[in-house]
Structures are given as C-alpha cells and as structure tokens.
Amino acid sequence: xxIIKCKNCGQEDFHHCKGLCYHCYRKLxxxxxxxxxxxxxxxxxxxxxxxxxxxxxxxxxxxxxKEWNHRKCYGLDKETYNRITKECVLCGxxxxxxxxxxxxxxxNNSETNLIGLCPNHHKMLHDFRYREEIIKQLKEKxxxxxxxxxxxxx
Length: 154
What we know:
Blueprint: E1 3-5, E2 12-14, H1 22-28, E3 34-36, E4 43-45, H2 53-74, H3 78-84, E5 98-101, E6 114-117, H4 119-126, H5 131-140
Antiparallel strand pairs: 1-2, 3-4, 5-6
C-alpha cells in the first residue's frame, strides 16, 4: 500500500480510495447497503441474515436480554426465573407466565415470595373485583398471602 496525504484531513496514512484515508472514506463516501428487513419491512442498512440491526438484536439476542432483565429487576438467575415461571400455579398454563410477588413488595425477591401466574390470573389478582376469588384459590393451593392484603373494597 502507498502512503499518501489524505485530501480531507491532511494526515499521512495508507491510501484507501479516492485520495482519502480509511476513516475519511468511511465518513464521507461509503454508504452501507440498504435492504428491506425481512421482519419489519423497513428500508434500513443491512446488518446480517437479511435483518435490520434492531430486528437482528431481537431475534438472535432475545434470551440474553431477558436474562439480563431478570437479573436486574428481580436479582434472579435464568434457571431460577424459568423454574418459578414454568407454569401458572392456578391453571397450569405454560405458554406465557408472569412473575407475581405474594406480599406485593417488589423489593422482596425471595423465592418463597414469588409465584408464576398466567396473564389472566395475574390481572385478576390485581383487579379488586376478582382478588378475593384468586386469593382463595391460592390459599387452597397452599400459598400464604399476607393477612393485611385488602380482599375487597366494599
């Protein structure tokens, strides 16, 4: 390679293209290939596997991101979180399972305070109209709910 004086920045560097150093060429002339993302159908710079950078992150690094969020929010490792949210403790639904704190304290992340509930039962537990029914079912299954938790707003 030939060392030249860059037309843009004036520094002596290896000749890359059109009388520019590598860094100035990347900044001024080079443009990434534009593609239509297979997942979101937006016109974006090509990243890998026919996806834009955001979709690539979502598709191929979703598990890592979820694991990081569980560790950050709940202080739980992946195995513990997966074990707790394996299925809903009330109905056995295992496709989508939320994590619920029995004592309603988000900072109390002990394993005895956490249970897995399907989105329906979780929403019902937080809705005062159905709370009494869900707490009754939890007690029948052997889960201890705090005594000071208001069962109804009558």
